[in-house]
Amino acid sequence: MNLTHTKIQPFPHSPPLTHPTFLFSSRSLLPFPRNLKPAHVSPSFLYKKHTLLRYGCFGVSRSRTRSSVSEVKAEQKQKPLLVKRAYPFDEIEPKWQRYWEQNRTFRTPNDVDTSKPKFYVLDMFPYPSGAGLHVGHPLGYTATDILARFKRMQGYNVLHPMGWDAFGLPAEQYAIETGTHPKLTTLRNINRFRSQLKSLGFSYDWEREISTIEPQYYKWTQWIFLQLLKRGLAYQAEVPVNWCPALGTVLANEEVVDGVSERGGHPVIRKPMRQWMLKITAYADRLLEDLDELDWPESIKEMQKNWIGRSEGAEVEFCVLDSDGRETDMKITIYTTRPDTIFGATYLVVAPEYTLLSSIVSTEQRESVEEYQDIASRKSDLERTELQKEKTGVFSGCCAKNPTSGEPIPVWVADYVLGSYGTGAIMAVPAHDARDHQFASKFNIPIKWVVTPNNGSCFESGKAYSGEGIIVNSSNLKVGLDINGLSSKEAAYRVIEWAEKVGKGKKKVNYKLRDWLFARQRYWGEPIPVIFLEDSGESLPVLESELPLTLPELDDFTPSGTGEPPLSKAVSWVKTIDPSSGKPATRETNTMPQWAGSCWYYLRFMDPKNSNELVDKAKEKYWSPVDVYVGGAEHAVLHLLYSRFWHKVLYDIGVVSTKEPFKCVINQGIILGEVQYTACKDTDGNYISADSADDLGEYLQENISEERVVKSGEFFVLKDSPNIRLIARAHKMSKSRGNVVNPDDVVSEYGADSLRLYEMFVGPFRDSKTWNTSGIEGVHRFLGRTWRLIVGSPLHHGAFKDGTLVTDEEPTMEQLRTLHKCIAKVTEEIEGTRFNTGISAMMEFINAAYKWDKQPKAIIEAFVLLLSPYVPHMAEEIWSRLGHPDSIAYEAFPKADPAYLKESTVVLPVQINGKTRGTIQVEKGCSEEDAFTLASQDEKLSKYLNGKPIKKRIFVPGKILNVILDRQNVKAGSIQ
Ligand code: ANZ
């Protein structure tokens, strides 16, 4: 999936914050800090830092600044790499990666034993960009890998595949700039991604790898298109599209930001063009209803609901009047969700692109209307409908009759009404709709109140009241409608009933969801399998037997600029013959959008080599649905909605057996760059506390290294001047900011296991978190401790002895309790995808184990099994050193024995003569005698008890021990 599509808007402003501020910027790279002057970093400081870095002095933080990256590189060339290893990860990791490959350890056989339960865990497959892997990728991939490994060990058949979403604009743009064929670039990038992923030890079944650019894959993407065409779900239409002249292509709405292309920032205009559309709207209700049964984040479900945007309302006809105020044959049908407010409609608005507009506009107003239409065509829908934007519009020169009040009302043209929604025309009710209110106030149109708030409060002047309430001013007996005194709900119902009776309207459900624009004027995409007869222009599907329709080789990928796609340059490919009539024909030269290949890839993984069917029925039935699907929240709507739509079509035609493709979706949080600290300075060079002024833009800024920073309460301050508060921010990683952490560097310095563990430990899986170098050093040290505990310290020349330090002794009760507590916690936390707290439990175990004299094999073996999903290389190595010839991957995951989980001791309060004097720790089943003996030996209690005659003991097992002293004898005794 193209993560470069990520669209997270920067925060509108960046005030100094107490906690690190998370600043995101997807494309527009923000100067850092945005409102501040250039930072100062001392070169000598940098030199010192990187010297430390190269010599592996862990514990020193390395926040890289823009200038530091180049310095590091220069230094790398001069100095030998001397990283101190906490354990020999650099030998272990390649060794076990080779082992897994040679032994096909993670291969999921084609014919699995289907009597066993299955677990299909999937990552949103990546778009193999030229930049290679980013530390954000392994976050999700490590989580799915832990789940895959955990479930394998629990006896499930696991499907854990990986592939490439490989068509897309960046490779094509690169081809245009450099003349390198997109296929070459893409394959090179895929090879890099694959080797990076392999270096992280993910347990993918690489024999199932698929790529959307392979003809054997896109054959089935094309086949699905033909099924959609057969069912009338793919059609052609002239639609206004986002046309980017500079890129020479049509862009999807999400690729246009503030009127310019997301990629390159080129101007975008609206232009009507022939396009292929997919009728996703036919599935709107099902896409909405079936959301309920999904175990998805509520936020995604909500976003899908809003995107589908189902609303219930009515269509009502308003009759157009001629210049003398007489009714004509022309009608303007409006869509409203508030029929109860119809008496308050004091004007109508039609969209600038409203089809009937040219026939209603008056001669005097024609020129200004056309001018207005032209300006509106250059605005995006978002710009037009923003509530805050000042409303614009022109009078059409004609009036229409409000069918309920009978009054003539003006018809305006305004771009806050969209041609693509409802009927493209609205009845404007300025008293009860905010936008209409702004518009009417600006153009002096009457405002008529027809709904009073239920609580009897008055209207706020200068503002619309958009809530429901009791209807007023809404009666016209001439037309037989009186809704005064009714609630909004009842009134809406009555208006619809009335409109249906008099033939002026009907109930109507509308969706925000639009049909899916399914064509791009690009080369690097799946060819659309359609031909056009040259004589009639009729479009015909390519025969299924002719699939795949392969993409022809081209040397020139530049867009024609006219909208003719680059494929039109492949003349001999374009010219063809219709096999059934023998007539000359031309091929469709538009290609499919990038979303196409990612819509169904999860099905192909179940049966990747099948040349007869998209997926074998039995295999699909066994593996469907995907049990856990992990990816970025940026795919909440488009990808997840498009694939649900295709899945439902495939369900309807019997290709798949489930209504939904993904049972559980999880979004991993974003990893931001390391926190950067900035101090403000006045012109004399004195530090100024960040809370001392509202506008810090006045001051000079200096980057402060982490070593000079300390946390004070909720704030970060200078270590040597704690009264100077600093600005702390974390930014999205970006090349230009120089805060990108490359996983390859981390792997070579600390090993893949440390990277995996850190990615899981850095914070809750679903939350945004900041990268922190000392954090990775911390987990690396933990792995070093674990290694030394089990294998031992290195010999003087850095090598390690064979075998381990474990003993064959029987574990003690305490050791068993510690282990089973850890098993229970790790299991529970993996199941709940709370990987970070699972790691904490393992750290606690290691701390406890360091206190033991001996490490019994039974205990250590179980612990290594627990560790293995997280750090598989180290676990495999120890497992083999423990004498096991086979991989740890299919060993049973330990089960917590409840017998060891019960707390064995209780704290017993001890009272002397009814007064609590202390507590003792006793075994749960402890007898009265034993409790009393313990109390007498207790330092504090003994002075009350020793040598004192006792009258009575009251003992409630596990609850209390009360000792009543014999006061008389105490006194007598003391006299004696
Ligand atoms: C009169 C009215 C009175 C409205 C009132 C609202 C409040 P949803 O819920 O999003 O479907 N509308 C209809 N078509 C439109 C278009 N093409 N472009 C912009 N706005 C359009 O919203 C439906 C409401 O949005 C409709 O109900 C209409 O304004 C407006 F007190 O009609 B209403």
Concise overview:
This protein has 976 residues and is of the alpha+beta class. Strands 11, 12, 13, 14, 15, 16 and 21 form a seven-stranded mixed beta sheet that branches. Strands 1, 30, 31, 32 and 35 form a five-stranded mixed beta sheet that branches.
The number of helical segments is 30
Q: Bound compounds, please?
A: ligand ANZ
Architecture of the domain at 310-511, according to CATH?
Alpha-Beta Complex
Through-space gap between termini? 92 Å
What structural class should be given to the helix and strand makeup? alpha+beta
Which regions contain 5 or more consecutive residues with pLDDT less than 50?
A: 3-83, 972-976
Tell me the fraction of residues in β-strands, as a range: 15-25%
CATH superfamily of the domain at 310-511: Valyl/Leucyl/Isoleucyl-tRNA synthetase, editing domain
Task: Give structural notes.
The protein is an alpha+beta fold and 976 residues long. Among the domains are: 114-221 and 596-667, HUPs (Rossmann fold); 310-511, Isoleucyl-tRNA Synthetase, domain 2, CATH 3.90.740.10; 671-744, no CATH class; 772-882, Isoleucyl-tRNA Synthetase, Domain 1; 905-965, Ubiquitin-like (UB roll), CATH 3.10.20.590. Helices cover 33% and strands 20% of the residues. The chain is built from 30 helices and 40 strands. The strands form twelve sheets. Strands 11, 12, 13, 14, 15, 16 and 21 form a seven-stranded mixed beta sheet that branches. Strands 1, 30, 31, 32 and 35 form a five-stranded mixed beta sheet that branches. Strands 3-2-27-28 form a four-stranded parallel beta sheet, covered by helices on one side. A hairpin with a 4-residue loop joins strand 19 (475-476) and strand 20 (481-482). The radius of gyration is 36 Å and the shape is globular. It starts with 20 loop residues before the first strand and ends with a helix. Mean pLDDT is 87; it is low at 3-83 and 972-976. It binds ligand ANZ. Ligand ANZ binds at residues 311, 335-338, 341, 351, 417-418, 421-422, 424, 426-427, 429, 432-433, 466, 510.
